[in-house]
């Protein structure tokens, strides 16, 4: 199966982008027409249609995993969809993902093998948001569903249809005739369905507040929630008895409790927690459960099932919402010890990154982190991609695919998905990093600045994998190794501030190669602080997952409690005020926006300029392809020609009175734009 190198005539009209190659006229074999039943949409709707072809007799949603799904996935953006304007999916090209169809794996609809299929379509509805910096985006706002990429609450869907693909010209008709229902919204909770609504139990409490900073930035009400697990013996009325807090970072926890491994709802843990007694085993005597409050956050958003708990130019000031609004609110309603020595950050994977980032950026708030198999701590290795030095995110220097997910058969690595496969799969769920829940896309949103198109400035071409190093450069404040070492001796004094407050665990067989970023981080900080500055544990043969250092859960929690006792003012090694100073705060939203917001995107643009007969092509966002045209004496002269960003061009067309150059920039996800130089009298 392969790409067709043709575009349908309709696509050419809307795309209206000059192409270096000429496309043949092509009649698609299979077209899928999807109309909208009355009452399904409130008004003309923008969004993204996902069309799934599954093996006959199966439900396309049974397996949508990138490593195993037998489905074909096709995605297409829709604009102004209504009962009057159906959407047609046909063909598919890697060049027209804004208006056309993009298919996985790397296929056009014409490439669907003849045979029987169950097909179904889903519509992610986008809402337009005008953010505080003037940037405008169309995104799906999740509502208590944890932001799945497909089929979340309120999604118009078609009925499952059985079709036979003939391999010849064929038109199939589907109808958006139903909408998936919310399970968590009964109509009167604070913030409606946002961040879900769950029933409190005796020990497990669900909190939700409206975030002022996020609501101001998004220009709409945005809520943030927490699941709070109180310890046995907790007495709300006894303010003298206060507890340390473990902030367990990680993915959308829904109503599942306040601790990821295992969740509170898993029987044995909950039974011990609720009774206050860990039952005796052959090796240990019965003992009391730890006197800790366990908290996890609910921060689903337009890009992912959580926000990465930091301030970002694309998702907004979630770090501030959690740290400056939600945590103080929790401190005001529960008997916490609101001091750094009694605040622990922990988590694995996404939560691993969040927990270490929280201590690194907010050493004034949190005492320590126990971070497990964190997302890349250094972009020297973004998973397995040498992001700063490689030319392509999908291919190694010798041209083999870069692997994203691996397994091990003994010591033999088994590759489950490549970076290219995953990125193409995400592209079918949404363009401009809007796959919602796509891992590579949310990294683009968290680590990246805004592009001129208001969406994340992607670090590479999502189709070809070509890395844009200028875009990657903007990621540096989120490269934790770089942030810590470059602020080692700055006024933040992170070398001194963070010493012995960072603990990281990772397995050497990590499914996503995250051990590599940990090793890079270790190398960078130990080059400055020597061994022992932070604590790293690598376990041979271990994959992704499990509790920190694979400790039994109760031993792990005891260790956390001991850390707090040791670092309390009357403990063995009290945490001194000099290391919890606000001077050391990083990731300030004002700084993030200064380099990453819409103003910064506008400021880095420049028109072409002409000096004599020599022209600079201007400044454009990374990845914008440029076509130039000389204007001689007010009229285009010669053919338009492609120019590279950063290159100068000279006019060699002979005599003229007035010279000007026009440069047209185009990029997927961007409006094609023509910029004119000054006019030079020659
Ligand atoms: C996509 O398919 C085309 C045609 O088969 C092939 O040349 C190209 O290498 C594929 N791209 C990727 C990234 O798999
Ligand atoms: C994109 O499609 C063209 C044909 O239209 C093909 O030559 C090229 O290999 C494709 N690129 C990728 C990365 O799939
Ligand atoms: C589709 O086919 C399956 C068997 O492959 C059958 O069980 C199901 O009822 C069919 N659905 C429709 C809508 O015809
Ligand atoms: C619509 O979906 C709901 C579940 O969300 C289901 O109960 C109902 O039967 C569906 N209606 C139709 C016409 O398929
Ligand atoms: C603990 O006791 C159970 C039941 O008596 C037994 O099955 C298990 O093997 C024992 N475990 C150890 C480590 O001794
Ligand atoms: C690192 O942490 C582990 C427990 O998490 C501990 O056993 C070990 O002693 C620590 N190493 C150092 C050098 O502090």
TrEMBL record:
Q: Which Gene3D superfamilies match?
A: alpha/beta hydrolase (3.40.50.1820)
For this protein, the record's InterPro entries field holds: AB_hydrolase_fold (IPR029058), Esterase-like (IPR000801), Mycobacterial_A85_antigen (IPR050583)
Taxonomy, superkingdom = Eukaryota
Q: Which residues form the signal peptide?
A: 1-18
**Keywords of this protein's UniProt record, alphabetized?**
Signal
What Pfam families does the annotation carry? Esterase (PF00756)
Task: Name residues in a coiled coil.
Answer: none
- Keyword Signal in annotation: yes
- PANTHER family in the record, alphabetically? ENTEROCHELIN ESTERASE-RELATED, IRON(III) ENTEROBACTIN ESTERASE
| Protein's UniProt name | Alpha/beta-hydrolase
The uppermost taxa in this organism's lineage are: Eukaryota, Fungi, Dikarya, Ascomycota, Pezizomycotina
């Amino acid at each position: 199966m392969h790409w067709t190198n043709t575009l349908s005539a309709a696509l050419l009209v809307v795309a209206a982008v000059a192409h270096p190659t000429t496309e043949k006229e092509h009649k698609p074999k299979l077209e899928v027409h999807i109309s909208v039943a009355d009452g399904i949409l409130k008004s003309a709707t923008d969004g993204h249609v996902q069309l799934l072809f599954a093996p006959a007799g199966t439900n396309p949603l049974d397996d949508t995993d990138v490593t195993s799904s037998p489905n074909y996935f096709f995605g297409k953006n829709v604009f102004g969809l209504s009962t009057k304007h159906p959407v047609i999916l046909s063909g598919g090209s890697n060049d027209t993902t804004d208006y056309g169809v993009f298919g996985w794996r790397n296929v056009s609809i014409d490439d669907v093998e003849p045979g029987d299929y169950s097909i179904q379509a889903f519509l992610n509805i986008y809402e337009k948001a005008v953010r505080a910096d003037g940037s405008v985006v169309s995104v799906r706002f999740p509502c208590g569903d944890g932001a799945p990429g497909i089929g979340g609450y309120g999604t118009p869907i078609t009925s499952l249809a059985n079709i036979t693909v003939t391999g010849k010209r064929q038109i199939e008709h589907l109808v958006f005739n139903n909408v998936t229902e919310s399970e968590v919204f009964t109509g009167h909770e604070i913030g409606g369905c946002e961040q879900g609504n769950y029933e409190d139990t005796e020990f497990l409490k669900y909190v939700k507040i409206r975030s002022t900073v996020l609501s101001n930035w998004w220009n709409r009400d945005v809520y943030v929630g927490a699941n709070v697990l109180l310890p046995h013996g907790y007495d709300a009325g006894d303010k003298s008895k206060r507890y340390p807090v473990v902030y367990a970072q990680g993915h959308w926890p829904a109503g599942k409790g306040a601790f990821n491994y295992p969740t509170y709802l898993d029987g044995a843990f909950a039974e011990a927690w609720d009774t206050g007694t860990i039952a005796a085993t052959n090796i240990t005597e019965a003992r009391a459960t730890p006197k800790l409050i366990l908290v996890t956050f609910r921060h689903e958003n337009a890009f992912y099932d959580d926000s990465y708990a930091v301030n970002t130019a694309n998702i907004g000031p979630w770090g501030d919402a959690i740290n400056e609004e939600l945590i103080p609110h929790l401190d005001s309603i529960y008997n916490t010890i609101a001091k750094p020595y009694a605040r622990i950050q922990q988590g694995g994977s996404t939560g691993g990154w969040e927990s270490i980032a929280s201590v690194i950026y907010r050493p004034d708030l949190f005492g320590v982190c126990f971070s497990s198999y964190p997302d890349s701590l250094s972009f020297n290795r973004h998973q397995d991609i040498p992001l700063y030095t490689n030319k392509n995110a999908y291919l190694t220097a010798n041209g083999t695919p870069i692997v994203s997910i691996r397994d091990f058969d003994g010591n033999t690595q088994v590759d489950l998905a490549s970076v290219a496969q995953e990125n193409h799969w995400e592209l079918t769920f949404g363009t401009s990093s809007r796959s919602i829940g796509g891992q590579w896309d949310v990294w683009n949103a968290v680590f990246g600045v805004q592009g001129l198109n208001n969406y994340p400035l992607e670090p590479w071409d999502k189709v070809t994998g070509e890395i844009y190093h200028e875009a990657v450069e903007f990621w540096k404040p989120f490269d934790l190794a770089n942030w810590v070492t470059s602020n080692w001796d700055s006024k933040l004094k992170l070398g001194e501030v963070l010493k012995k407050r960072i603990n990281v665990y990772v397995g050497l067989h990590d499914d996503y190669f995250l051990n590599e970023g940990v090793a890079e981080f270790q190398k960078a900080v130990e080059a400055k602080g020597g061994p022992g500055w932070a604590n790293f544990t690598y376990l041979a043969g271990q994959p992704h997952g499990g509790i920190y250092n694979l400790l039994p859960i109760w031993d792990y929690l005891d260790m956390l409690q001991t850390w707090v006792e040791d670092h309390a003012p009357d403990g063995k090694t009290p945490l001194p005020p000099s290391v919890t100073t606000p001077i050391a705060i990083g990731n300030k939203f004002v700084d993030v926006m200064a380099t990453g917001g819409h103003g910064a995107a506008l400021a880095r643009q420049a028109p072409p300029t002409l000096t004599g007969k020599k022209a600079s092509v201007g400044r454009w966002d990374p990845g914008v392809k440029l076509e130039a045209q000389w204007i001689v004496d007010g009229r285009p002269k010669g053919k338009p020609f492609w120019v590279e960003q950063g290159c100068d061009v000279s006019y060699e067309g002979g005599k003229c009175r007035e010279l000007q150059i026009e440069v047209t920039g185009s990029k997927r996800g961007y409006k094609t734009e023509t910029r004119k130089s000054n006019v030079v009298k020659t």
